[in-house]
Amino acid sequence: MIDAHSVADVIAAEHAHASELDSGVFMDRASTGLAAQILRLFTGSIPGTRVVIAAGSGNNGGDALFAGARLARRGMRVDAIGTTNRVHVAGLAELRRAGGRFAVWGSDRSQALVDEADVIIDGLVGIGAAGALRGAAAEMVPILNAAKGIRVAVDLPSGVDADSGQVLGAAFDADLSVTFGAAKPGHLVAPGKALTGELRLVDIGIGDALTEPAARALQEADVSMAVPGPGFDDHKYRRGVAGVAAGSEEYPGAALLCVGAAVRGDAGMVQYLDRADGLARAVVGQYPEIVASQRTD
Fold first, then answer.
1. If exposure means fewest CB atoms within 10 Å of the residue's CB, which of 4, 43, 53, 196 is most exposed?
2. DSSP, residue by residue, 74-123
């Protein structure tokens, strides 16, 4: 099960660990985890891999820049493109020390760098952003989405509301989202879910301060535990009988779909109740393990 926490809950949990927040420990943990998840994407040669960071002015951009420095030290060619020249100061300094380069969107070769990149890191805005993307960020996102490189979102795809999953205007379409501390509802709720791609969580040490999740998403293993398969000594009556009254001459597919779902739900016996429309023959032909009876209503 994936537990998703609201922005307010995550921020409160971070402030409950004020010493780590103030000292930059959270950003170090986040950027380290982000770089590690990007490195996991490559099983072959890493040196020479071209990485472009789309960096905004806030801490989200800082996470991306510090992660970029770690990637540069592993031999990747890292270019950061800022929405303006005002980006996270310490993160940019670290990137430059590692051999990374920086340009402002709209400058010479900024779009060419995106087109040539093997990995594109979205660090434009963070989870606290509200409303539609504006300015250079809104201009960059469609170009980032059209590029051939693997698209990685820092915490949450820019343009997706972290608490609702709502999208107003342009939004980054990620292949992978690396989130910190906890998943956010925007990762799990449409349309944000469709833009999240694969979701990976980095533990930054705030789990003990989080409260009740704002949303939960069941995974296949959760459903398997809730609906266990039959035991070696089970029989049809111990597992229960599922009755299905569905379909008509006009909509025969409804009968097949509903009966198929009941069969896959591991009921002890599935009984199809036919309304004398002649559907029973087709249903039993598809699912010979069921029993068909006539409906009288």
1. 43
2. TT-EEEEEESSS---HHHHHHHHHTT-EEEETTSTTHHHHHHH-SEEEEE
